[in-house]
Input
Amino acid sequence: MLILDNIPALLVAIPLLASAVVSLIPSARIAWGIAFVTTLICLYMAFELVGIISSTQALSYAFGGWEPPWGIVFVLDSANVYLVLLVAFVSVIATLYAYTMLAREIAVEDLPKAYAVWLLAIASLFGLAMTGDAFNLFVFLEISALSSITLIALGAGQDRRALLAAYNYLIIGAIGATFYVIGVGYLYAATGSLNLIDITDRLNELGTNQAAITGLAFMLAGIMVKAGVFPVHIWLPAAYSYAPSAVSSLLAAVATKVAIYYFARLLFGIFIDITQLVDFFLLYILMPVSVLAIFYGTIAAIYQSDFKRLFALSSIAQIGYITFAFSLNSHSGILAGFIHIINHALIKGALFMAVGIFALGIGSRATMSSMQGVGRQMPITFAGFVLAGLALIGVPLTAGFISKLYLFKAIFETGNGFYVALIALSSVLSVLYLWKIFEVMWLKEPVQPQKIDKEPASAYLPVWLMVTVIMTFGVYSGDVISSGIGAANALIGAR
Amino acid sequence: MSVNLIVLYWNYIIVIMLMMAGLYIIISNQNFIKKLVGLSIFQSSVFIFYISLGKVSGGTAPILTGIEDTVYSNPLPHVLILTAIVVGVATNALGLALVVRIQEAFKSIEEHKLLALKKEDGLKDIQIEVSKEDSAV
Output
């Protein structure tokens, strides 16, 4: 069947085309309708893809009939098909959430164009997750960066500092992307190929090659910027805290996760045979940096009073957990990393959505002092928020617990008790900032009871949809774990 | 020997010089437009790097002439850079648009002034919160 055969291309093409259509529509409601239907179609196609992959294991889609390694390919295997599903699912929920929230934070005449950029961002995330071509990835990386910068800058209507955050992201992101291109250039000079699978084969023939190693270093550095890995995360807190809340929830949930997936793919799928370099990088660079990220993010979050910035800082810590799991360089480590990619995307998406609703209710930024007692006035959202917060800590019966469980399992395998203690300590520390929020929002007396708007059902419904999934994955975790096992198998082979 | 290296690889040396100059401008300059200029120089250096990679000495443009044993330059890096140039133009356009908006919102595009203004905004947030607490008391 024509449509079924071309799903990988359509997943990118449909949002791209819809984005062009949406930008021409004057009515915000119709624009949203088209955007929502588009994301629903994408979700359906993602489910189809999961079905295809579970029966065929891997799928390679060559564009225009140009066979790899000459043409551009989209490669799907059990590692990225669940990522595609995750992006599709989160974008449906975030679009649903945007209906009320984006409309209240952005001028009405800008809304159709905002949805156009929104769809562009979603299309680029699908492309990033699926492409098997090193240079094509750069193009999607830039589409994703430019569209997210535009979306972040839309927060300027609420707070003019959004513009500075967007500009910083533009400069830092562009440097990162250019580093990535330099790396691809070196790799092309060394291997004469841009197809990632082909590059792996040719690197095996080449053996140790200085140009390839330099290229790998540049590519990793570039991707780390996009993924918000610790020392090069500086664009992230400001960008997520000043963006409109619908945008924060979409970007925080999936944009960095896709970059992290590609980071893992580079390390374990493409360059794993340059063992001495990959081992060195994982053990002496990524592992210490991840531990620093975990503690920096958590401790900075404890001292932060602005809610959105707090959760952006906590994102850095959570990304630290993911990269830490990868740095263990084992099957169970990658498994733990992928489980946490999925779980953290859902948890952080839900948290940012809830904070957006609180901020809208009081009509100003959500901070420790402005949020006093707001939890009592918005009980439905607050209940979802607390459950997502518990999942972030890793309380049993939530998805976060499964993440932590597998992370501990992976660390125990290495037999290093020191790291077990470090991760346990950081989990305890993360209780602190969430307790602080709970105390302010629930235990303190409301400051201004009369002024609170009612929480709109169309806003808390998406939060609860996310929370339902988080709780479901906490109890029936089989699907997430098997998808993680599939990813680990695809990346470093079944063990 | 070293002179020989310079003569042989002068294009790569220029790439490195441009790259460092661009990065230095981005890091050291206070003015947002100058930063974007630095970014352009940085990106251009990578374009030259790719074009140098694709050049085969003695090679001609990759057009089939029918003459046997013609040496062609590798067209692929050149085509890639065409794409990268488009991306660079888009980045610059968006960056300049943002600078216009920043100028409108803050009346300045100098980084140190903006940081001070940003801090002021932060202080304002805190003041608003404090006044809210006062009214509650």
Observations:
- Chain A touches chain B at residues 135, 138-139, 142, 145-146, 149-150, 153, 156, 159-161, 163-164, 166-167, 170-171, 174-175, 177-178, 181-182, 185, 188-189, 194, 306, 364-365, 367, 369-370, 447-448 (CB under 8 Å).
- The first strand of chain A starts at residue 58 and ends at 62.
